[in-house]
Amino acid sequence: MSPRTGRPKTDNPINIRTSIRLDAKTDKKLNDYCLKHNLTKGEAIRMGVHLLLDEKK
């Protein structure tokens, strides 16, 4: 039997999809930030959520 191909399983899969609406100004700021820091929008938004939750502690 041949070995399995594809991506390896992860302990914390990213499989929940959330849709948001942004105004043009906020979207541009997010895109600029992502380009500057070499991030995807999803990574940047997840970082923002963690910052908000850590701030509440």
Biggest sheet architecture: none
Strand tally, please? 0
Output the number of helix runs.
Answer: 2
Percentage of residues assigned to helices: 40-55%
Give average pLDDT, whole number: 90
Calculate Rg over CA atoms.
16 Å
Structural class assignment: mainly alpha
Task: Quote the beta fraction.
Answer: under 5%
Overall, the morphology is extended
Q: Can you tell me the residue ranges where pLDDT is under 50 for at least 5 consecutive residues?
A: none
N-to-C SSE string, H for helix and E for strand? HH
Head-to-tail CA distance between termini: 51 Å
Structure description:
The chain is mostly helical and 57 residues long. The protein contains two helices and no strands. The chain has helices at 24-37, 41-55. The longest helix is centred in the C-terminal third of the chain and has 15 residues, at 41-55. The mean pLDDT is 90.
